[in-house]
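Mods, move this if it's the wrong board.
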Amino acid sequence: MSTKQKVFFPNKTLKMAGEIYFPEGLDTEKKYPSIVVTHPGNGVKEQVAGLYARLLSEKGFITLAFDASHQGESEGLPRYLEDPTARVEDIRCAIDYLVTLPYIDEERIGAMGICAGAGYSINAAQTEYRIKAVAGISTWDVGDSQRNGFARCWTEEEKKQMLREVALQRTREARGEAPRYVGYVPNSQEEITENTSVIQREAYEYYCTPRASHPNSHNKFLFSCNDRLAAFNAFDLIETISPRPILLIVGSKADTIYFSQNAYDKANEPKELYRIEGATHVDLYDKMEYVGPAVEKLNDFFTNNLK
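Not the wrong board. Structure tokens:
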């Protein structure tokens, strides 16, 4: 059994909230490998990020799951801001916190994330050399999806129209109008139609039903941050992570597999794209018949690469 502790750490002027998980029998006189676990968009540390953090701590790692700035229990205004640059900086600040702990081996720090958190973790590893190995679960590149639509279905005109709407909304808010918030997923079963994608149906069930809903996860983000999302490319310099290793874990039935495939194709060795048969994107969040094999793969990966 592992234990966890609520922690707070700084990110410039903000106070970040996290939960750090310790392996059973922690000896504070020893140095341990550690892993920073980053949650998806719309997620908080108590959901899938905390599950993976706990399970990996049971394998002997010290793990840290945290709420992104502007979200969950972390500080930051405006609330529900999904800013890729800020999300990547959150990961750096989480590592800043870990290296202050006497029982953390600063030469054995890994990073991983789920969905958008995987894209942010991979992006951070491109320039954050304290990350010695990086892994993604059901990886998502928020820049790709905001430029091109999910499954790259948008026309050039649809992309331009979205950015025009963002520009108009920023002007309204600059003149004093209330911020506009939109949801990541449908808010109710009634909003799901025959045109709703599988990932949206799955995410609704995960975030908006008793399956995994949490009072700090509010299914909203600031509409005007879509321009920052569209300008982001999670894998822009992914080849520079080499010779540090990359692991991408994806369900064989995920309709988001193209994000992981794109990352794998662009990355240099050592790299691995590992498919879990029968799993969809969100199955890897909490269904133990799929999470279990994912954790075993992660354990092997980080054990071998955080030597």
